[in-house]
Design goal:
The complex is a heterodimer of chains A (781) and B (209). Chain A has 781 residues and is an alpha+beta fold. Chain A has a 7-stranded mixed β-sheet, sandwiched between helices. A 6-stranded mixed β-sheet of chain A has the order 9-10-20-19-18-11. The longest helix of chain A has 28 residues, at 538-565. Chain B is an alpha+beta fold and 209 residues long. In chain B, strands 1, 2, 3, 4, 5 and 6 form a 6-stranded mixed β-sheet that branches. In chain B, α5 (140-147) crosses α8 (193-208). The radius of gyration of chain B is 17 Å and the shape is elongated. The relative contact order of chain B is 0.14. Classes of the chains: A alpha+beta (781), B alpha+beta (209). At the A-B interface, α1 and α16 of A face α4, α5, α6 and α8 of B.
């Protein structure tokens, strides 16, 4: 959908799934955007396994992460954190800490004199902070702060928090109103005790649908709290100066943090700069300024010196966000032919003291079903805040839905893939099921529990759905210097997905240069505003304006070169490092020679993300949702030791759609990462709160168990090539969709292996043995 | 998985916990005195043989060069490398030996530098990620990591590279299982393990060619 009055032209694009067969489609394209990009097979750099540009810096330790930033006169900030899960702070005495000669600033975060800021609601909530000449002095100063707590009743378990007489976590004033993350994003919901909601959705008439059903499958599913565990801790170096604020921060969104800082500290945007070079993982937890960010800036302002705060691992585990824990009840009604008549979803989830514990949109949208109803609730408990984590909502949502669909297939007596062929309208996932089934050897799948061996093997499948997000507020500059060097600039940050390399591919493809000839300068708000690295939207948002800007700057270069070659600018093309006449390639000059003839030292073009050529499904401020969803299918092969209860995932086949694949090498890495995070969630990870104290007992990296190399299966990644003719690159993201189907695929494989269905995560040996009836289900999640 | 003080003389092994008990201070002093006559491995000690709590002068051999710093005896090797020595390629992610991000070589063997004190190093030589690429030429493991995309965010990468490179020094022709064992103590949240294994096997092959 073009803006009214915008000048456009009609272009013909490749369309469809490459392995099925490509057709063409016509689109109206803004006049200042480049001609359609052909399918990857006809391209030089795009779609090719180009190694990441900052690889050398990363393998030699040269990459500067925020934790490595050290400024002259820099102080070290530490945060005093609440050691009770719910308390009113009557007084804080910081006088002894302030007298310490090494302490340069002391900040009260909780304020005993302000009823709205005097209550802490989780262990780990910030209470006060200091900036000192060293970490050791800062730690010693924290020990000198005296806090007078009035303990309040608390609740640290979701089921207990739902009881009518449960201690209230919030009062009317403190209860969060909107959803900071997750889905659904409903505000103004009723609050009843600790339960906020329901947020409801409705399509058709679910009661009627269930009445029409020949059978109804029903199940309850529970998922644990997962923490992000970025290897680089949350970190910031704040440098408050009279002429402006510069912040080095491990962040997923430099441009967004700049806005937050401007708002919180009353500064014009032009006086706030956010910088990040190396960015050691985020997975959703580094999307905003955060408590530590505000504190560091406030300390720097007070001390008139740069202040660095790096969270320790315990702080990471308790006050840096988490994936909320959930409970859901799903009912699915179907006719004998498999067609669905109704889906009903009821859910309760907890994001600690905040909201955003919904189940995503898989139950609503993955399968064709005329009648749907959902009622979802957030439950407050006295625990650290949840936040977005890699495909929020859809990860726990798919764990329930995809097992329910498998149960329905068994009740119908049909193969799980055949049922999905019947009820899944997506041509993308149909092709993905075909590819994946062949690779995993689905035809060898046996009946549930049929393996006679005590170590029982099984195959399972599950599907994923994720919205194709686009950040409209995304821009990029491409410059050509007189010496022929090329720069691409954007504030976008490389979270580890390799967006810088992809930008070099895109610009190099347009200019006919090698990717290493493109200098990528990103991670700095001094450059044009780039998108966030969340919502799997970076590539979708930034590669189209990068290609457009490169194309526009090339037109400028053509204009000047055409005079020298005595041809029309429109007859020139850029190829293999040369600017040549289209129909007479021997006539031309090198790119460097062309640049040397420029009238000025530098030419440049800045482009912004235009709307998808086919329009958007939905627009929400700076963000938008593309028409198509991103589909994924994963197959898992497991071996379940029925004597020890240990589940080993031996193989995963992941087939994923991301529109046009930009770099198969980097995409494979991301999909492997999504699968491993899903496997780790399925089998190991679990935040455990000590119920008598409200403390996390495994706030570290050894008792909070992550999948390691020994638990890593063979992962077979297939990235679909899917053209929808929607932008100058037609590319979308992959990080989140690759994380959705893993846990339910493993659960369905465990069922196929053992005949026992695990409806709660993580699937620990104890849980497996309990499901097999070999031990009592005591104290399991 | 690297362990603190691996391959070091028994008397120089010293856990952080043990050290922090004041009674252990003389043990540390003894370890240092032993090496005091050498060019490296020096740390000044009080007359009673105890070090600290104030800063002491520590000299150690890092990446082939003798370096001297003033640091409190409680400073870990990882902190000393990243702070006063300016070698920030070594990363601290858990600071308690659970993730191996801080892996460096001590006399050629991978250790967690967050699990030993700087004054414990003594006469042993330290190799960090900054020293692995000799004369600007990448170690075969580093080159293979780039080629096979065995890194994503890159934060665990220096430690991972040090363990894989150490493996090739002691086992030039490793199996995939050998590589998995060598990195078994490393955590990578991006999920690079499959590419790390592939890269290390490819590096072994490239070295033989």
């Amino acid at each position: 959908m073009m803006a009214a009055g915008e000048i456009t032209r009609t272009e013909t694009f490749p369309s469809g799934i490459a392995s099925v067969g490509l057709g063409t489609i016509e689109r109206q394209v803004p006049a200042d955007e480049p001609p359609p990009l052909p399918a990857n097979a006809a391209l030089t750099l795009i779609g090719k396994p180009v190694p990441r540009q900052n690889g050398r810096a990363k393998v030699t330790g040269a990459t500067r992460f925020t934790v490595d930033v050290s400024l002259p006169g820099m102080l070290h900030g530490r945060i005093l954190r609440a050691n009770l899960p719910h308390a009113r702070i009557r007084a804080i005495d910081v006088s002894a800490a302030a007298r310490d000669p090494g302490v340069r600033a002391v900040l009260l975060v909780a304020r005993p004199d302000d009823p709205a800021a005097a209550v802490v609601r989780y262990v780990g909530a910030p209470v006060a902070a200091v900036a000192a000449v060293s970490m050791a002095v800062a730690d010693e100063a924290l020990a000198l702060i005296r806090v007078d707590y009035e303990p309040l009743p608390f609740v640290a378990d979701m089921d207990a928090a739902r009881e009518p007489n449960a201690p209230p976590v919030h009062d009317a004033a403190s209860a969060p109103q909107g959803h900071p993350s997750g889905y659904p994003a409903a505000a103004d919901l009723p609050l009843d005790g600790n339960v906020r909601g329901p947020a409801t959705e409705r399509r058709g008439d679910a009661a009627l649908g269930f009445a029409q059903a020949d059978m109804v499958v029903e199940g309850e599913y529970r998922t644990q709290v997962q923490t992000h565990c970025c290897m680089e801790p949350h970190a910031i170096v704040a440098d408050w100066r009279t002429d402006g604020l510069t912040v080095h921060m491990s962040t997923q969104y430099t441009a967004g943090v700049r806005h937050e800082l401007a708002e919180v500290f009353g500064l014009p945007l032009s006086r706030v700069r956010v910088v990040v070079d190396g960015m050691g993982g985020g997975f959703g937890s580094k999307s905003t300024l955060g408590n530590h960010g505000r504190i560091a800036v406030a300390l720097s302002r007070q001390a008139q010196a740069p202040v660095r705060i790096v969270l320790d691992r315990q702080e990471e585990q308790t006050d840096a966000g988490n994936r909320p824990g959930t409970w859901q009840r799903l009912r699915v009604g179907a006719r004998r032919d498999g067609s669905l008549t109704a889906i009903s979803l009821q859910s309760y989830g907890t994001a600690g003291l905040t909201v955003g514990a919904g189940m995503g949109n898989v139950a609503q949208a993955l399968y064709a079903c005329p009648n749907f109803e959902s009622a979802q609730h957030d439950v407050f408990i006295n625990a650290g805040p949840g936040c977005a984590m890699r495909a929020p909502g859809n990860v726990p949502g798919a764990f329930g839905l995809e097992q329910t669909i498998d149960e329905l297939a068994e009740r119908l007596g049909v193969d799980p893939l055949a049922l999905r062929d019947r009820i899944d309208p997506s041509p993308v996932r149909r092709e993905e099921r075909r590819i994946g089934a062949a690779r995993i050897g689905w035809q060898h799948r046996h009946a549930p529990g049929a393996d006679p061996d005590p170590v029982k093997r099984g195959l399972g499948v599950a599907q994923a759905l994720w919205g194709a997000n686009v950040q409209i507020n995304s821009s990029c500059e491409v410059r050509v210097m007189r010496d022929g060097s090329v720069e691409v600039l954007s504030s976008v940050q490389d979270i580890g997905t390799g967006i810088g390399t992809v930008l070099a591919q895109v610009v190099g493809e347009v200019l006919g240069l090698r990717p290493e000839q493109i200098i990528v300068r990103i991670g700095d708000t001094e450059f044009p505003a780039g998108p966030p690295s969340y919502g799997s939207r970076t590539t979708a948002s930034l590669t189209p304006p990068a290609r457009t800007a490169a194309w526009q700057v090339l037109q400028l270069l053509f204009r000047e070169s055409a005079l020298r070659l005595n041809v029309a600018a429109a007859d020139l093309i850029a190829r293999d490092g040369r600017i040549v006449v289209r129909n007479e390639p021997s006539r031309g000059m090198s790119f460097a020679e062309a640049a040397a003839g420029l009238r000025t030292d530098r030419i440049s073009a800045v482009a912004a993300r235009s709307d998808d050529y086919g329009g958007f499904r939905r627009r929400m401020g700076d963000a938008a949702l593309a028409h198509q969803d991103l589909g994924g299918v994963q197959f898992a092969e497991v071996a379940v030791d029925t004597e020890t209860g240990i589940v080993r995932v031996e193989r995963v086949v992941a087939v994923q759609d991301c529109g046009r694949p930009m770099n198969p090498l980097l995409l494979e890495s991301q999909v492997q990462g999504g699968v491993l995070m899903g496997l780790s969630y399925a089998l190991f990870e679990n935040r455990i709160l000590d119920q008598p104290t409200g403390r996390m007992v495994n706030a570290n990296l050894e008792q909070y168990k992550l999948a390691g190399p020994r638990e890593t299966p063979a992962i077979d990644v297939v990235v679909l090539e899917n053209y929808q003719a929607n932008s100058a690159t037609d590319a979308y993201g992959i990080a989140e969709p690759a994380n959705i189907a893993t846990a339910p695929a493993i659960a369905n494989a465990v069922y196929n292996a053992t005949g026992a269905r695990l409806r709660a995560l993580p699937m620990t040996p104890a849980a497996v043995l309990a499901a097999l009836g070999k031990v009592a289900a005591r104290g399991l999640p | 998985m690297p362990s603190p003080g691996e391959h070091g003389p028994a008397r120089q092994r010293l856990s952080r916990r043990l050290f922090l008990r004041s009674s252990a201070l003389t043990t540390a002093g003894a370890a240092i005195t032993e090496a005091a006559s050498a060019l490296v491995g020096q740390a000044e000690a009080a007359d009673d043989g105890a070090s600290g709590p104030g800063p002491v002068t520590i000299t150690m051999k890092i990446n082939g060069v003798a370096r001297t710093l003033r640091a409190e005896p409680r400073m870990t090797l990882a902190e000393a490398l990243r702070g006063p020595l300016g070698l920030t390629g070594t990363k601290i992610a858990c600071n308690r030996g659970a993730c191996s991000a801080c892996t460096v070589w001590l006399d050629g063997a991978p250790v967690c530098s967050c699990m030993m004190l700087a004054i414990e190093v003594g006469a042993r030589s330290v190799m960090t990620i900054e020293g692995l690429a000799g004369g600007g030429e990448l170690h075969a493991v580093q080159a293979a990591f780039i080629e096979h995309d065995a890194l994503q965010c890159g934060f665990c990468t220096p430690g991972m590279v040090m363990s894989c490179a150490a493996l090739l020094e002691r086992t030039p022709d490793p199996t995939a299982e050998d590589v998995e064992a060598a990195i078994a103590g490393h955590l990578c949240r991006c999920g690079t393990y499959p590419h790390v294994v592939a890269a290390t096997l490819a590096a072994a092959k490239a070295r033989k060619a």
